[in-house]
Amino acid sequence: MNTTEFSLQFDIYYNSIASNQAPPVDEYEKSVFLTNAQRDLIVDIYSGRINTMSFESTEEARRYLANLVITKTITELQREGSNTTDPYVISDLNFKSDISYIVMEYATLSDENACLKYAKLEVIPITHDELLRTLNNPFRGMTDRRVLRVDENDNISLYSKQELGSYNIVYVKNPSPIILEDLSIYGEQATVDGIQDVTQCHLPEIFHREILNRAVMAAKQAYTNVQQANS
Q1: I need a labelling partner for 22 at 20 to 30 A (CA). Which of 29, 153, 155, 201 fits?
Q2: pTM to 2 decimals?
Q3: Please, what is the average pLDDT of the chain?
């Protein structure tokens, strides 16, 4: 379904359930409703609330979000200091805000560990509160096969006993918004996720109707809320 189809069918469904009494919804408002519906649907797909299949549980489930799965490899890692307790800090992660869910992550060893160079070390995410006691725990802390990850704003800190060569991450990215027309006609502040240009839905066609239905119901609920507030 392209943007024109989304717009026209939105009007048909919206007018049908609102009995043509609700005020019209412009293209900017439709874009917001559609984008929010798409985001909520991705959460439901990943968590298994759609067809009771969690992401990657089956080949069918893997196809649902395949267009949004990204693989990144970061090389030339450097420690903050000279001790093994000093972390590798990965800065300027311009893609971090794009991450919706991390599917898999691992680290590989540096060239100095030639015999184990291609070994994959498990990366375990932990919080700042857990960091100190986890580092000192032989069962949960750093090992020859385990790396700890702590997030700090746009940075990632990796704690490893081994010298690392790369950090690898597979994640589900945040989808592009669904924007039905050039929003610049509504003013500079009229954006969806910071974007004004027309943007198509990148999820499989099988989910377009569901996105449309959710967006229309959200618009109807918004109209109902206004009615109740004014009554």
Answers
A1: 201
A2: 0.82
A3: 86
Q: What pLDDT was estimated at residue 18? A: 67
DSSP run (H or E) holding 81: none
Q: For 72-78, which contacts have Cβ atoms below 8 Å and span 24 or more sequence positions?
A: 72/168, 72/169, 72/170, 72/171, 73/166, 73/167, 73/168, 73/169, 74/166, 74/167, 74/168, 74/169, 75/165, 75/166, 77/110, 77/158, 77/164, 77/165, 77/166, 77/167
State the DSSP string of 119-179.
PEEEEEE--HHHHHHHHT-TTTS-BTTEEEEEEETTEEEEE-SSPEEEEEEEEEEPPPP-B
pLDDT at 71: 93
